[in-house]
UniProtKB/TrEMBL annotation:
Enzyme class, first EC level, given as a word: oxidoreductase
Cofactor binding mode and count: Binds 1 heme b (iron(II)-protoporphyrin IX) group per subunit.
Binding positions for Ca(2+) 1 per the UniProt entry: D85, V88, G90, D92, S94, E103
Residue numbers annotated as active site: H84 (proton acceptor)
Record: residues binding heme b: H206
Organism: Psophocarpus tetragonolobus (Winged bean)
Protein residues bound to substrate: P176
Protein name from the UniProt record: Peroxidase
Length: 338
């Protein structure tokens, strides 16, 4: 163990030197006008509510826990809701807005769930610290707590997101549906500051939860218009899906082997052609992402530690943190009236 730390120190030393070097040469490079160059997520912090609403996190975790105990399917639902929030206009609670023409009312949002849980949390927090905690922050922390309850890792959530005032139904269509090719998935993540490692890691959320048959039926009966099944679909899974999918709205577990456990079976499934969505399976078919799949399939600790890192990155996507941006909504369903 000692030796390990020593090696680490030796590895870090050159880094430290370059930092010092960087500072010492600052005068020779053009001066950065520091503040304006800070990215919006730099204004988030773990201690954001420590003085203004010290019980916020406890309220959130207690509520998530009691709802998930009654209905375990809410854990994956909340994690997905957080992704759909961050994927459109950043993590700004725009998915929660429930007015006519909002993202939430779109056809593409019809299988999103967990809104009542967020409303219940918000109601309790408003009683304790009115107009202080944003809906975007509540959803972010709830997704972390849901992960933990499903058997996944814990991580510290940086807080300080404001809630957005804009939500447009047609933008819900931007979120990948499960039919995209790997190149467009990579591009979608990249546009949000997430790389290929984040793509493979966050897709690991599909180790729990369910999908409607409509999201993958083309793989079973008519793949790419060939009139044949997807050749990258395991034949036993193919048989199972034909049996399970009588109607397009029937539900199938995304990880058919260990559907309720937050583990790396999602990745071993991909190596055996047992991925449910074609987008899941494509992570293993493509040479750019396959090495990450293999690494996670064989080293569970690597997955859980990277999942924490990638979820923090997801929660930082295009956040509203500047004084004139966004608001603290009083009701997560509506933009404030005054
Ligand atoms: C890589 C692109 C992604 C695609 C194409 C995708 C696609 C899908 C689809 C089609 C479903 C099933 C929807 C239905 O038919 O009911 C689903 C469910 C789910 N997704 Fe994703 N997803 C992606 C990324 C993510 C990310 C980044 C997360 C979280 C960080 C996530 C979390 C979930 C969860 C937990 C479920 C299960 C929801 C439930 O059981 O209620 N997905 N996803
Ligand atoms: C991937 O999908 C995009 C968008 O639909 C399309 O423009 C592109 O040609 C596709 N790429 C490949 C390699 O199939
Ligand atoms: C399969 O899909 C193609 C194109 O999407 C369509 O033209 C064809 O009629 C479909 N075949 C069957 C058997 O549904």
């Amino acid at each position: 163990m000692r030796l390990h730390y020593l090696t680490l120190l030796l590895l870090l030393l050159p880094l430290e030197m370059s930092t010092i070097y960087g500072i010492s040469t600052e005068e020779s490079v053009p001066k950065k006008s520091s503040k304006s160059l800070l990215p919006p997520e730099a204004f988030l912090s773990i201690g954001h509510y420590h003085t203004t609403c010290p019980d916020a996190e406890a309220i959130i975790s207690q509520k998530v826990s009691s709802w998930v105990k009654k209905d375990p399917t809410l854990a994956p639902a909340i994690i997905r809701l957080h992704f759909h929030d961050c994927a459109v206009r950043g993590c700004d609670g725009s998915i929660l807005l429930n007015h006519r023409g909002s993202e939430r009312t779109a056809y593409d949002s019809k299988t999103l769930r967990g809104f009542q849980l967020i409303d219940d949390i918000k109601g309790e927090i408003e009683k304790r610290c009115p107009r202080t905690v944003s809906c975007a922050d509540i959803l972010t922390a709830a997704a972390r707590d849901a992960t933990l309850l499903a058997g996944g890792p814990f991580w510290e959530v940086p807080f300080g997101r404001k809630d957005g005032k804009v939500s447009i139904a047609r933008e819900a269509n931007l979120v990948p549906h499960g039919h995209e090719n790997i190149t467009s998935l990579i591009a979608f993540f990249q546009q949000r500051g997430l790389d290929m490692l984040d793509l493979v890691t966050l897709s690991g959320s599909h180790t729990i939860g369910r999908s409607t048959c409509s999201s993958f039926m083309d793989r079973v009966y008519n793949f790419s218009g060939t009139g044949k099944p997807d050749p990258s679909l395991n034949v036993y899974l193919l048989k199972l899906l034909k049996k399970r999918c009588k109607r397009v709205m029937d539900l199938v577990h995304l990880d058919v082997i260990t559907p309720r456990t937050f583990d790396t079976t999602y990745y071993t499934n991909l190596m055996r052609k047992v991925g449910l969505l074609s987008t899941d399976q494509s992570l293993f078919s493509d040479a750019r992402t396959a090495p990450f799949v293999e690494a996670f399939a064989t080293q569970p600790f690597l997955f859980t530690s990277q999942f924490s890192v990638s979820m923090v990155k997801l929660g930082n996507v295009q956040v509203l943190t500047r004084p004139n941006e966004g608001e603290i909504r009083v009701n997560c369903n509506y933009v404030n009236t005054v």
